[in-house]
Every structure is written in C-alpha cells, then in structure tokens.
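Troubleshooting entry. The earlier prediction with magnesium ion gave an output that would not parse, so I re-checked the input for stray whitespace and re-submitted. Clean input:
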Amino acid sequence: MNQNSIKVQTEPRVLFVDMNSFFARCEQQDNYWLRGRPVAVCVYTGQYGFAIALSVEAKRMGVKTGMRLNEAMKLCPELIPLESNPPRYRQYHTKIINILKRYCPEVIPKSIDEAIVNLTNYKMVYPDAVFIAKKIKEDIKREVGDWLTCSIGIAPNAFLAKLGSDMGGFDGLQIITTQNIDDKLASLKLSDLPGIGKNMAYRLERAGITTPLQMRYTAPERLKAVFKSIEGVYWHYKLNFIETGMSVTDYKGMQAMRQISADKRSNPEYIEQLFLTLCTTLEKRMVHHHFYCKNIGFTVKYTDDSRWDDGFSISIPIQDAISLMRMIKKRIMQFEEKTQAAPVFNDKISGLRIMVTDFVNTGKMMYSLFEDVNRGETARKTMYAIQQKFGADKLKRAVEVTDGKVVADVIGFGCVKDLTELDYLMPGEN
Ligand SMILES: [Mg+2]
C-alpha cells in the first residue's frame, strides 16, 4: 500500500494516533495497583537492566528511558521495575488497530504504539475529522482499557499529523492546517521535528536555516543541497502538505541469535567468531533489503538464566558487520570499565542475541553521509580503516574463510528470525 503522491493536500484529514507511555500504561491497565505509581518496563529487571519504557509518574521523577536500574532507583526509590511483556502489548495493539479499522480500512500501523488513519477519501462519510479523533479516544478507553490514552494529531499529511500528536502531549488533540501551520512551527526548534537529529539540526543551522518555519519556506533544491540527498526534497514536501509518509514499513527489526553449548562456552575464540557471524548474518539481510539501522540491541544470556542487555541508538546509520561488532564491543568495554563488574563475555555464556531496528532505506547514503558528518569522526575513521584493511567487498569473504565452522553451526541450529510482528519494538516517548 503506497498512497504517496506529489499532489498538495490542503484538508486536514490524516490522523496520527500515538498511545501515551504505551508499555507502562498497558501494565497499569492490567494491574490496578500500579496506577499512579512510577513504573519502569525493562527487558531484564536485574541491577543492570535498563528502562525501555516509563510511566508518566516515573518520567516526572526524572527517570529517563535507557537508564540502568541501579541509577534509576537511586533517583526514584519508589520506582517499580517490571519485566516487559510483549504478548500483552501486542494484544492491546491489535485491539486498538481493530478499533481504528472500524472507521476506515486505510489504517497503517507505524509501530506498536502508533498508527495512521487516512480519512482523505472518506469525506462523505466523515465530514469532521476532529469528531472522529474524539470518538477514537472514547472507543479505546471504553472498549480496550480505561487507562489507555493517546495523543492524536490531524493534518493534511502523515508527517504533520505526527508532529501534531507530538505537540499534543498526554491525551492531546492537535490539528495542523494550512492556516495555522506557521504559528505552530514558530514555537518549535529544528530538533523538535521528528526525524531531525542533533547532527542534522547543526548542519541546517550552518547553512543558515535556523528554524522549522524557515525550513518550510526554503526551496526544495536548497534543502536537497543541504541534506546532500533527495531527503531534502522530501522535507520540503512534508512541511508543505505533500504526502511522503503513507507507506507500510515491512520490516521493523531483525535479529540473529544463537545458543552456546556447554563444550563451546569456555572457548573465547569460538564466541568471538560466533559474535562476528551473527553480525554478518544481519549485514547480509540489511544489504539484501537496502537497509541501514540506527538502533542496536544486544543480549548475552548466562547459564544461571541471568542476562546482560544493552540497547543504543546511533546517529549515522550502519549496515556492515564490523561496525556493528565494534560498536557493541565498545559499549561492553565502557560498561566493564565503569562498573568494574565481571567480564560480559565469560565462560558462563549460554547464548547471544543481536537486534537491529530503526531502519533507513537510503541506497548509497552511508558513504556520502560519512563524508559530511560533523560528529562522526571516530566512526568515519573506523570505517575507512576497515575499508583499507579488507576492501569493501572482501569483508564478507574474510569472515567466511576464517569461521566456516561457525557458519555451519549457525545454519545447523537454524534459528535466525526476522521480526515482522513488532517484537522488541520500543514505544516512542509519548
Ligand atoms: Mg507513544
């Protein structure tokens, strides 16, 4: 389903529905005692587990997503850590999507807690989009869960509708129209626009484009030059009522995982090679789909059922196995240095899992981006060093030559799974 078109839409008939603090709210929905209390949803609730989602009460106490529990509990001793429950969130997700589909078939889930409802072609049935947005909020509360709230943005295109939902905040409802868009944008910074990170904001500022309002009135060719990519043109479209965001993202994430048998876990070389093989598996899949990832997750499981989890976002999308591996290793080293804890890779390892999410499909963008990043110096040097050392296309062959045995093992166990069902997706901050 691709409903993008370069036609300018002026009527605000696209709804962006964003569930508030979704994972935490689902937990509070199912356990009455948790309501009104600071809750942190974690993949793992041990000392070094980290919060992947927080209730508004926890956010108010200054707890941030990504904080490790030992830090978070210091900040907020009443914090209640809960192990995440993906089937529960998927169930609620499905119920919510079914409510939305009641209004029109053009519903596009964007993540586990976000969806677009495109009412553009249903003007005869629903002349008033604001009325429908209010109905949706009521339906969700009445039929799915009284504790489940959402912020809805309404605009002529999906991007501006999302911006509206962001601006609406908790239980919000914001409408962005051709009449009020300039006023709405005037209150925002560049980095308030979903998709504009710190690096890009800095690049725009250096080019003399300092506010979203100014960006809206910048010619598409100029934005293309600043972005050094067609993305710049899309940004002009987004801010000028042309649709670019109305397509289904097929892949939300991919993961590669492996159990490690008792006779292998005391062999550091095996573990090292397995690690590289898992990274290479993900690289092959990302290359196949022309994806680069911006979010990486990593789990080490141990024989006593404990685990070490990490997850982080990067500003420069990557695709290659070695960058993936180095970034994870760097995180591990920083963790070991900071905590003086036992090494993450030790002879009690029983499994490894690597996840990549937050894809961008950018063709050849990686290298052009590397030429122009301001804060990616280290990453750039690393990449060039790798290219020089192995050559861009020799990388994979080098891997296959050195660990043919491990590759065979991976195929033998046969457990590499793509996540098409929104597993492990983290909800947005709203
Ligand atoms: Mg949300």
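This one parsed fine. The radius of gyration is 23 Å.
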